[in-house]
Specification:
The complex is a heterodimer of chains A (386) and B (103). Helices cover 43% and strands 16% of the residues of chain A. Chain A has 386 residues and is an alpha/beta fold. Chain A has a seven-stranded parallel beta sheet with strand order 9-10-8-7-11-12-13, sandwiched between helices. In chain A, strands 3-2-4-5 form a four-stranded parallel beta sheet, with helices on both faces. Chain A is globular and about 60 Å long. Chain B is mainly beta and 103 residues long. A six-stranded mixed beta sheet of chain B has the order 4-3-1-2-5-8, with no helix packed on it. In chain B, strands 6-7-9 form a three-stranded antiparallel beta sheet, with no helix packed on it. In chain B, β3 and β4 form a beta hairpin. The chains are: A alpha/beta (386), B mainly beta (103). Chains A and B meet through α6, α7, α8 and α11 of A and β7 and β9 of B.
Protein backbone atom coordinates (compact mmCIF):
# COMPACT_ATOMS: atom_id res chain seq x y z
CA UNK A 1 0.00 0.00 0.00
CA UNK A 2 1.35 3.42 -0.99
CA UNK A 3 0.33 7.05 -0.69
CA UNK A 4 1.26 10.30 -2.40
CA UNK A 5 3.13 12.69 -0.13
CA UNK A 6 5.70 15.45 -0.03
CA UNK A 7 9.33 14.40 0.38
CA UNK A 8 11.27 16.10 3.18
CA UNK A 9 15.04 16.22 3.41
CA UNK A 10 14.79 14.94 6.98
CA UNK A 11 12.39 12.35 8.36
CA UNK A 12 9.03 11.15 7.14
CA UNK A 13 7.19 12.62 4.14
CA UNK A 14 4.34 15.09 4.65
CA UNK A 15 0.76 14.49 3.57
CA UNK A 16 0.21 18.26 3.43
CA UNK A 17 2.48 21.11 2.34
CA UNK A 18 1.60 23.94 4.72
CA UNK A 19 3.38 27.22 5.32
CA UNK A 20 3.25 27.50 9.11
CA UNK A 21 2.88 30.98 10.61
CA UNK A 22 4.15 30.39 14.12
CA UNK A 23 4.08 32.78 17.10
CA UNK A 24 6.76 32.59 19.79
CA UNK A 25 4.30 33.92 22.38
CA UNK A 26 0.73 35.09 22.85
CA UNK A 27 1.70 38.60 21.70
CA UNK A 28 2.56 37.26 18.24
CA UNK A 29 -0.56 35.15 17.81
CA UNK A 30 -2.88 37.80 16.34
CA UNK A 31 -0.27 38.93 13.80
CA UNK A 32 0.17 35.29 12.77
CA UNK A 33 -3.58 34.96 12.26
CA UNK A 34 -3.63 38.00 9.98
CA UNK A 35 -0.61 36.82 7.98
CA UNK A 36 -2.12 33.37 7.43
CA UNK A 37 -5.40 34.91 6.30
CA UNK A 38 -3.49 36.85 3.62
CA UNK A 39 -1.60 33.92 2.06
CA UNK A 40 -3.18 30.86 0.46
CA UNK A 41 -1.47 27.70 1.71
CA UNK A 42 -0.56 29.24 5.06
CA UNK A 43 -1.90 28.07 8.43
CA UNK A 44 -1.43 29.75 11.79
CA UNK A 45 -1.21 28.64 15.39
CA UNK A 46 -2.82 30.57 18.23
CA UNK A 47 -0.39 30.25 21.13
CA UNK A 48 -1.43 31.63 24.50
CA UNK A 49 1.78 31.50 26.56
CA UNK A 50 5.52 31.94 25.91
CA UNK A 51 6.02 34.53 28.64
CA UNK A 52 6.14 34.62 32.46
CA UNK A 53 6.34 30.84 32.58
CA UNK A 54 8.19 28.55 34.95
CA UNK A 55 11.07 26.70 33.31
CA UNK A 56 9.15 23.43 33.01
CA UNK A 57 6.30 25.16 31.15
CA UNK A 58 8.75 26.92 28.85
CA UNK A 59 10.37 23.59 28.06
CA UNK A 60 7.00 22.11 27.16
CA UNK A 61 6.08 25.11 24.99
CA UNK A 62 9.40 24.95 23.16
CA UNK A 63 8.95 21.24 22.47
CA UNK A 64 5.53 21.98 20.99
CA UNK A 65 6.60 25.01 18.90
CA UNK A 66 9.69 23.35 17.46
CA UNK A 67 7.77 20.10 17.03
CA UNK A 68 5.07 21.88 15.00
CA UNK A 69 7.73 23.43 12.75
CA UNK A 70 9.42 20.04 12.26
CA UNK A 71 6.15 18.23 11.52
CA UNK A 72 6.40 16.59 8.07
CA UNK A 73 3.21 18.37 6.92
CA UNK A 74 5.03 21.72 7.13
CA UNK A 75 6.94 22.99 4.07
CA UNK A 76 8.31 26.16 5.64
CA UNK A 77 7.90 28.37 8.70
CA UNK A 78 7.40 32.10 9.30
CA UNK A 79 7.91 32.96 12.97
CA UNK A 80 6.55 36.11 14.60
CA UNK A 81 7.77 37.10 18.05
CA UNK A 82 7.44 40.24 20.16
CA UNK A 83 10.93 40.86 21.51
CA UNK A 84 10.68 40.43 25.27
CA UNK A 85 9.35 36.85 25.47
CA UNK A 86 11.22 34.02 27.22
CA UNK A 87 12.53 32.47 23.98
CA UNK A 88 12.88 35.14 21.26
CA UNK A 89 12.11 34.55 17.59
CA UNK A 90 15.73 34.28 16.44
CA UNK A 91 16.47 31.64 19.06
CA UNK A 92 13.39 29.58 18.17
CA UNK A 93 14.36 29.88 14.48
CA UNK A 94 17.88 28.64 15.21
CA UNK A 95 16.54 25.68 17.18
CA UNK A 96 14.34 24.69 14.25
CA UNK A 97 17.12 25.25 11.69
CA UNK A 98 19.48 23.08 13.72
CA UNK A 99 17.11 20.15 13.20
CA UNK A 100 15.95 20.62 9.61
CA UNK A 101 16.73 22.34 6.34
CA UNK A 102 13.21 23.73 5.74
CA UNK A 103 12.94 27.43 4.92
CA UNK A 104 12.46 29.30 8.22
CA UNK A 105 12.33 33.08 8.68
CA UNK A 106 11.47 35.12 11.76
CA UNK A 107 10.46 38.65 12.74
CA UNK A 108 10.05 40.57 16.01
CA UNK A 109 7.24 43.09 16.43
CA UNK A 110 9.30 45.44 18.63
CA UNK A 111 12.27 45.30 16.21
CA UNK A 112 10.14 45.93 13.15
CA UNK A 113 8.27 48.89 14.66
CA UNK A 114 4.82 47.47 15.33
CA UNK A 115 2.38 44.93 14.02
CA UNK A 116 1.61 46.41 10.59
CA UNK A 117 5.26 46.61 9.55
CA UNK A 118 5.83 43.07 10.87
CA UNK A 119 2.77 41.72 9.10
CA UNK A 120 3.87 43.32 5.80
CA UNK A 121 7.28 41.59 5.97
CA UNK A 122 5.84 38.30 7.19
CA UNK A 123 3.18 38.24 4.45
CA UNK A 124 5.86 38.76 1.78
CA UNK A 125 7.99 35.97 3.27
CA UNK A 126 5.01 33.61 3.52
CA UNK A 127 3.93 34.48 -0.04
CA UNK A 128 7.38 33.56 -1.38
CA UNK A 129 7.37 30.26 0.50
CA UNK A 130 3.83 29.40 -0.63
CA UNK A 131 4.80 30.11 -4.23
CA UNK A 132 7.80 27.77 -3.98
CA UNK A 133 5.80 25.12 -2.12
CA UNK A 134 3.37 25.07 -5.04
CA UNK A 135 6.14 23.70 -7.28
CA UNK A 136 6.75 20.65 -5.14
CA UNK A 137 5.33 17.52 -6.76
CA UNK A 138 3.85 14.69 -4.74
CA UNK A 139 5.74 11.40 -4.79
CA UNK A 140 4.75 7.82 -3.95
CA UNK A 141 5.72 6.51 -0.51
CA UNK A 142 5.07 3.17 1.21
CA UNK A 143 2.36 3.29 3.88
CA UNK A 144 5.10 2.36 6.39
CA UNK A 145 6.12 6.03 6.27
CA UNK A 146 2.94 7.00 8.13
CA UNK A 147 2.84 7.90 11.81
CA UNK A 148 -0.78 7.92 12.97
CA UNK A 149 -1.88 9.62 16.19
CA UNK A 150 -4.87 8.01 17.92
CA UNK A 151 -7.16 10.11 20.05
CA UNK A 152 -10.60 9.96 21.64
CA UNK A 153 -12.73 12.76 23.01
CA UNK A 154 -16.30 13.31 24.13
CA UNK A 155 -16.44 9.57 24.79
CA UNK A 156 -19.60 7.67 25.63
CA UNK A 157 -20.27 3.97 26.04
CA UNK A 158 -20.20 3.45 22.25
CA UNK A 159 -16.54 4.53 22.14
CA UNK A 160 -15.14 1.63 24.17
CA UNK A 161 -17.53 -0.91 22.68
CA UNK A 162 -17.25 -0.05 19.00
CA UNK A 163 -15.26 2.90 17.64
CA UNK A 164 -12.17 2.38 19.82
CA UNK A 165 -11.77 -1.33 19.01
CA UNK A 166 -12.29 -0.50 15.30
CA UNK A 167 -9.49 2.06 15.51
CA UNK A 168 -7.46 -0.51 17.44
CA UNK A 169 -7.88 -2.84 14.48
CA UNK A 170 -6.70 -0.04 12.18
CA UNK A 171 -3.67 0.45 14.43
CA UNK A 172 -2.83 -3.27 14.22
CA UNK A 173 -3.17 -3.21 10.43
CA UNK A 174 -0.82 -0.22 10.17
CA UNK A 175 1.76 -1.78 12.49
CA UNK A 176 1.60 -4.99 10.44
CA UNK A 177 2.30 -2.90 7.31
CA UNK A 178 5.41 -1.46 8.96
CA UNK A 179 3.85 1.91 9.90
CA UNK A 180 3.60 3.43 13.37
CA UNK A 181 0.57 4.26 15.51
CA UNK A 182 0.70 6.37 18.65
CA UNK A 183 -1.90 6.31 21.44
CA UNK A 184 -1.77 8.94 24.20
CA UNK A 185 -3.93 10.30 27.10
CA UNK A 186 -2.23 8.46 29.93
CA UNK A 187 -4.76 9.55 32.57
CA UNK A 188 -7.22 7.49 30.56
CA UNK A 189 -5.12 4.37 31.04
CA UNK A 190 -5.77 4.50 34.81
CA UNK A 191 -7.93 1.55 35.76
CA UNK A 192 -6.87 -0.28 32.62
CA UNK A 193 -3.11 0.27 32.94
CA UNK A 194 -2.58 -3.35 34.03
CA UNK A 195 -4.20 -4.47 30.75
CA UNK A 196 -2.26 -1.96 28.63
CA UNK A 197 1.04 -2.82 30.34
CA UNK A 198 0.65 -6.46 29.23
CA UNK A 199 1.27 -5.18 25.69
CA UNK A 200 4.69 -3.86 26.68
CA UNK A 201 7.35 -5.41 24.43
CA UNK A 202 9.72 -5.65 27.41
CA UNK A 203 9.36 -5.72 31.22
CA UNK A 204 10.82 -2.18 31.23
CA UNK A 205 8.04 -0.91 28.97
CA UNK A 206 5.46 -2.72 31.11
CA UNK A 207 6.80 -0.92 34.17
CA UNK A 208 7.05 2.44 32.37
CA UNK A 209 3.33 2.27 31.61
CA UNK A 210 2.46 1.59 35.26
CA UNK A 211 4.90 4.33 36.37
CA UNK A 212 3.33 6.93 34.06
CA UNK A 213 -0.09 6.29 35.64
CA UNK A 214 1.21 6.29 39.21
CA UNK A 215 3.11 9.55 38.60
CA UNK A 216 0.09 11.19 36.95
CA UNK A 217 -2.10 10.44 39.96
CA UNK A 218 0.59 11.78 42.32
CA UNK A 219 1.03 14.93 40.23
CA UNK A 220 -2.67 15.74 40.42
CA UNK A 221 -2.81 14.92 44.14
CA UNK A 222 -0.01 17.43 44.75
CA UNK A 223 -2.35 20.07 43.30
CA UNK A 224 -5.18 18.83 45.54
CA UNK A 225 -6.99 17.02 42.72
CA UNK A 226 -8.22 13.44 42.92
CA UNK A 227 -8.15 12.08 39.36
CA UNK A 228 -11.31 10.14 40.17
CA UNK A 229 -13.17 13.41 40.80
CA UNK A 230 -12.31 14.88 37.37
CA UNK A 231 -12.73 11.68 35.42
CA UNK A 232 -15.08 10.68 33.92
CA UNK A 233 -16.25 14.12 32.75
CA UNK A 234 -19.92 15.14 33.13
CA UNK A 235 -20.45 14.35 29.43
CA UNK A 236 -18.90 10.90 29.82
CA UNK A 237 -21.24 10.16 32.76
CA UNK A 238 -24.30 11.27 30.81
CA UNK A 239 -23.06 8.97 28.03
CA UNK A 240 -23.05 5.95 30.33
CA UNK A 241 -19.46 5.90 31.62
CA UNK A 242 -19.54 5.68 35.42
CA UNK A 243 -15.91 5.47 36.59
CA UNK A 244 -12.43 6.33 35.34
CA UNK A 245 -11.77 2.57 35.18
CA UNK A 246 -14.70 1.99 32.83
CA UNK A 247 -13.63 4.90 30.64
CA UNK A 248 -9.99 3.76 30.55
CA UNK A 249 -10.78 0.12 29.74
CA UNK A 250 -12.67 1.43 26.70
CA UNK A 251 -10.06 4.07 25.82
CA UNK A 252 -7.10 1.72 25.67
CA UNK A 253 -8.83 -0.45 23.09
CA UNK A 254 -8.14 2.21 20.45
CA UNK A 255 -4.42 1.39 20.66
CA UNK A 256 -4.93 -2.12 19.28
CA UNK A 257 -3.19 -5.28 20.40
CA UNK A 258 0.36 -5.16 19.01
CA UNK A 259 3.39 -5.00 21.33
CA UNK A 260 4.15 -1.49 22.60
CA UNK A 261 7.72 -0.67 21.60
CA UNK A 262 8.18 2.79 23.12
CA UNK A 263 6.73 5.03 25.88
CA UNK A 264 7.20 8.72 25.06
CA UNK A 265 7.01 11.96 26.99
CA UNK A 266 4.65 14.64 25.63
CA UNK A 267 5.60 16.02 22.20
CA UNK A 268 8.65 13.72 21.98
CA UNK A 269 9.30 12.24 18.50
CA UNK A 270 9.44 8.42 18.46
CA UNK A 271 12.71 6.60 17.82
CA UNK A 272 11.06 3.23 17.15
CA UNK A 273 8.49 1.98 14.65
CA UNK A 274 5.32 0.13 15.59
CA UNK A 275 2.79 0.63 18.37
CA UNK A 276 3.83 3.54 20.58
CA UNK A 277 2.23 5.26 23.59
CA UNK A 278 2.71 8.84 24.81
CA UNK A 279 2.18 10.26 28.30
CA UNK A 280 -0.26 13.13 27.65
CA UNK A 281 -3.26 14.73 29.30
CA UNK A 282 -6.76 13.35 28.94
CA UNK A 283 -7.69 16.77 27.56
CA UNK A 284 -8.08 15.85 23.90
CA UNK A 285 -6.97 19.17 22.39
CA UNK A 286 -3.76 19.09 24.41
CA UNK A 287 -3.14 15.46 23.56
CA UNK A 288 -3.58 16.08 19.80
CA UNK A 289 -1.23 19.08 20.14
CA UNK A 290 1.46 16.85 21.68
CA UNK A 291 1.09 14.14 19.04
CA UNK A 292 1.24 16.67 16.17
CA UNK A 293 4.38 18.11 17.78
CA UNK A 294 5.86 14.59 17.91
CA UNK A 295 5.54 14.33 14.13
CA UNK A 296 2.25 12.49 13.49
CA UNK A 297 1.09 13.33 9.97
CA UNK A 298 -2.54 12.42 10.68
CA UNK A 299 -4.80 11.89 13.69
CA UNK A 300 -7.79 9.56 13.96
CA UNK A 301 -10.24 10.72 16.61
CA UNK A 302 -13.09 8.65 18.03
CA UNK A 303 -16.02 10.33 19.72
CA UNK A 304 -19.34 9.33 21.19
CA UNK A 305 -20.98 12.65 21.99
CA UNK A 306 -19.44 14.56 19.07
CA UNK A 307 -16.67 17.16 18.81
CA UNK A 308 -15.63 19.63 16.10
CA UNK A 309 -11.91 19.77 16.91
CA UNK A 310 -9.26 20.17 14.24
CA UNK A 311 -5.54 20.91 14.09
CA UNK A 312 -3.89 23.42 11.75
CA UNK A 313 -1.03 21.14 10.72
CA UNK A 314 -2.44 17.63 10.97
CA UNK A 315 -5.77 16.43 9.53
CA UNK A 316 -8.07 15.06 12.25
CA UNK A 317 -10.36 12.25 11.03
CA UNK A 318 -13.47 12.03 13.21
CA UNK A 319 -15.23 8.68 13.71
CA UNK A 320 -18.22 7.73 15.85
CA UNK A 321 -20.27 4.61 16.49
CA UNK A 322 -23.09 6.65 18.04
CA UNK A 323 -25.80 6.66 15.37
CA UNK A 324 -27.51 9.76 16.79
CA UNK A 325 -24.25 11.74 16.99
CA UNK A 326 -23.35 10.87 13.40
CA UNK A 327 -26.68 12.02 11.99
CA UNK A 328 -27.14 14.99 14.35
CA UNK A 329 -23.56 16.30 13.93
CA UNK A 330 -22.81 15.03 10.44
CA UNK A 331 -21.05 18.32 9.57
CA UNK A 332 -18.36 17.39 12.09
CA UNK A 333 -18.22 13.60 11.67
CA UNK A 334 -16.17 11.89 8.95
CA UNK A 335 -16.95 8.20 9.44
CA UNK A 336 -20.06 6.41 10.74
CA UNK A 337 -19.28 3.18 12.61
CA UNK A 338 -22.73 2.73 14.16
CA UNK A 339 -23.19 -0.43 12.11
CA UNK A 340 -20.97 -2.17 14.67
CA UNK A 341 -23.50 -1.49 17.43
CA UNK A 342 -26.38 -2.71 15.23
CA UNK A 343 -24.43 -5.90 14.43
CA UNK A 344 -24.22 -5.00 10.72
CA UNK A 345 -20.41 -4.78 10.51
CA UNK A 346 -17.61 -6.41 12.44
CA UNK A 347 -14.68 -4.71 14.16
CA UNK A 348 -12.39 -6.38 11.60
CA UNK A 349 -14.39 -5.02 8.63
CA UNK A 350 -14.49 -1.59 10.26
CA UNK A 351 -10.71 -1.56 10.67
CA UNK A 352 -10.36 -2.30 6.95
CA UNK A 353 -12.77 0.50 6.11
CA UNK A 354 -10.84 2.93 8.34
CA UNK A 355 -7.61 2.02 6.58
CA UNK A 356 -9.23 2.98 3.25
CA UNK A 357 -10.48 6.28 4.72
CA UNK A 358 -7.07 7.02 6.20
CA UNK A 359 -5.44 6.24 2.86
CA UNK A 360 -7.69 8.83 1.18
CA UNK A 361 -6.78 11.46 3.79
CA UNK A 362 -3.08 10.68 3.29
CA UNK A 363 -3.57 11.17 -0.45
CA UNK A 364 -5.03 14.63 0.09
CA UNK A 365 -8.75 14.29 0.81
CA UNK A 366 -9.69 16.91 3.42
CA UNK A 367 -11.28 15.91 6.72
CA UNK A 368 -14.28 18.01 7.73
CA UNK A 369 -12.40 19.84 10.51
CA UNK A 370 -9.59 20.52 8.04
CA UNK A 371 -11.95 21.92 5.40
CA UNK A 372 -13.32 24.35 8.00
CA UNK A 373 -9.77 25.50 8.78
CA UNK A 374 -9.98 24.62 12.46
CA UNK A 375 -6.80 25.26 14.45
CA UNK A 376 -7.23 24.08 18.03
CA UNK A 377 -4.19 23.95 20.29
CA UNK A 378 -3.58 23.51 24.02
CA UNK A 379 -0.13 23.19 25.54
CA UNK A 380 -0.11 21.25 28.81
CA UNK A 381 1.09 23.16 31.87
CA UNK A 382 3.02 22.08 34.90
CA UNK A 383 2.56 25.15 37.08
CA UNK A 384 1.05 28.66 37.43
CA UNK A 385 2.52 31.68 35.63
CA UNK A 386 5.18 33.65 37.49
CA UNK B 1 -41.13 -4.74 24.87
CA UNK B 2 -37.88 -6.39 23.90
CA UNK B 3 -34.75 -4.24 24.07
CA UNK B 4 -31.12 -4.99 23.24
CA UNK B 5 -27.91 -4.66 25.20
CA UNK B 6 -24.25 -5.47 24.60
CA UNK B 7 -22.58 -7.92 26.97
CA UNK B 8 -18.82 -7.69 26.47
CA UNK B 9 -17.48 -10.59 28.53
CA UNK B 10 -18.89 -13.67 30.21
CA UNK B 11 -17.46 -12.44 33.51
CA UNK B 12 -19.48 -9.19 33.36
CA UNK B 13 -22.41 -8.50 35.69
CA UNK B 14 -23.60 -5.50 33.64
CA UNK B 15 -24.54 -4.98 29.99
CA UNK B 16 -24.82 -1.75 27.96
CA UNK B 17 -28.33 -0.90 26.68
CA UNK B 18 -28.39 0.19 23.04
CA UNK B 19 -31.74 1.92 23.48
CA UNK B 20 -33.64 3.20 26.50
CA UNK B 21 -35.15 0.37 28.57
CA UNK B 22 -38.37 0.92 30.54
CA UNK B 23 -39.57 -1.06 33.55
CA UNK B 24 -40.87 -4.50 32.48
CA UNK B 25 -38.90 -4.39 29.18
CA UNK B 26 -37.07 -7.66 28.52
CA UNK B 27 -33.46 -6.78 27.72
CA UNK B 28 -31.72 -9.31 25.45
CA UNK B 29 -27.95 -9.19 25.81
CA UNK B 30 -25.55 -10.37 23.12
CA UNK B 31 -21.90 -9.94 22.20
CA UNK B 32 -19.19 -11.62 24.25
CA UNK B 33 -21.85 -13.70 26.01
CA UNK B 34 -25.63 -13.91 26.15
CA UNK B 35 -28.21 -13.22 28.85
CA UNK B 36 -31.65 -11.76 29.31
CA UNK B 37 -32.93 -9.66 32.15
CA UNK B 38 -36.12 -7.73 32.89
CA UNK B 39 -35.55 -4.00 33.53
CA UNK B 40 -36.92 -2.80 36.88
CA UNK B 41 -36.41 0.91 36.24
CA UNK B 42 -35.77 3.23 33.29
CA UNK B 43 -32.23 2.82 31.95
CA UNK B 44 -31.09 5.49 29.49
CA UNK B 45 -29.51 4.59 26.16
CA UNK B 46 -25.80 3.57 26.47
CA UNK B 47 -26.17 3.04 30.23
CA UNK B 48 -25.67 -0.20 32.14
CA UNK B 49 -28.22 -2.72 33.37
CA UNK B 50 -27.41 -5.14 36.24
CA UNK B 51 -27.61 -8.75 35.03
CA UNK B 52 -27.99 -10.07 38.58
CA UNK B 53 -28.44 -8.55 42.03
CA UNK B 54 -25.20 -6.77 43.04
CA UNK B 55 -24.88 -6.21 46.79
CA UNK B 56 -23.36 -3.10 48.33
CA UNK B 57 -19.53 -3.32 48.20
CA UNK B 58 -19.49 -5.93 45.42
CA UNK B 59 -17.36 -5.47 42.32
CA UNK B 60 -18.88 -4.42 39.00
CA UNK B 61 -17.38 -6.11 35.93
CA UNK B 62 -17.36 -4.85 32.31
CA UNK B 63 -14.84 -5.92 29.61
CA UNK B 64 -14.18 -8.81 32.05
CA UNK B 65 -12.44 -6.27 34.32
CA UNK B 66 -13.41 -4.41 37.49
CA UNK B 67 -14.85 -0.97 36.74
CA UNK B 68 -15.74 -0.14 40.35
CA UNK B 69 -17.60 -1.19 43.48
CA UNK B 70 -21.24 -0.64 44.34
CA UNK B 71 -22.22 2.01 46.89
CA UNK B 72 -25.60 0.36 47.53
CA UNK B 73 -27.51 -2.82 46.72
CA UNK B 74 -28.47 -2.83 43.05
CA UNK B 75 -31.34 -5.15 42.05
CA UNK B 76 -31.27 -7.41 39.01
CA UNK B 77 -32.47 -5.27 36.09
CA UNK B 78 -31.46 -2.06 37.91
CA UNK B 79 -29.58 0.95 36.51
CA UNK B 80 -25.83 0.91 37.24
CA UNK B 81 -24.38 4.43 37.00
CA UNK B 82 -21.93 6.90 38.55
CA UNK B 83 -24.60 7.46 41.24
CA UNK B 84 -24.31 3.93 42.64
CA UNK B 85 -20.78 2.73 41.84
CA UNK B 86 -17.34 4.21 42.46
CA UNK B 87 -13.76 3.68 41.32
CA UNK B 88 -11.37 1.88 43.65
CA UNK B 89 -7.83 3.32 44.05
CA UNK B 90 -5.14 1.37 42.22
CA UNK B 91 -2.52 -0.76 43.90
CA UNK B 92 0.31 0.25 41.55
CA UNK B 93 3.03 -1.33 43.70
CA UNK B 94 1.65 -4.79 42.91
CA UNK B 95 1.56 -4.13 39.15
CA UNK B 96 5.27 -3.70 38.46
CA UNK B 97 7.21 -6.62 37.05
CA UNK B 98 9.98 -7.29 39.53
CA UNK B 99 13.44 -8.10 38.29
CA UNK B 100 15.71 -6.33 35.89
CA UNK B 101 14.36 -2.84 36.56
CA UNK B 102 14.82 -3.56 40.26
CA UNK B 103 11.59 -1.92 41.47
Amino acid sequence: MEFYGYRRKEGRPGIRNHILILPTCACGSESCRIVASQVRGAVNIVFNTGCSDVAANTEMSQKVLTGFALNPNVYGVVIIGLGCETVPHAKLREKIQAKCSKPVVSFGIQEEGGTLKTIAKAVRAAREMAAEAGLQQKEKFPISELLLGIECGGSDATSGIASNPAVGNLSDRLVDLGASAMMSESIEWIGGEHVLARRGATPEIHNQIIRVCEDYEKHLLAAGQDCRAGQPTPGNKAGGLSTIDEKSLGCIRKGGTRPIVEVLEQAQPPTKRGAIVMDTAGYDISSVTSMAAAGCQVIIFTTGRGTPTGNAIVPVLKVTANEHTYSWMEDNMDVDLSGIIRGEQTIEESGGMLLEKLHEIANGKLTKAEAYGFSDIAVDHVCRFV
Amino acid sequence: MEKKAILLDEKDNVATCTSEAKPEDMVICHGGGSAQVKAVETIPIWHKIALRPIAKGEMVYKYGEIIGETLQDIPQGGWVSHENIRSIPRDYASEYIMGKEGK
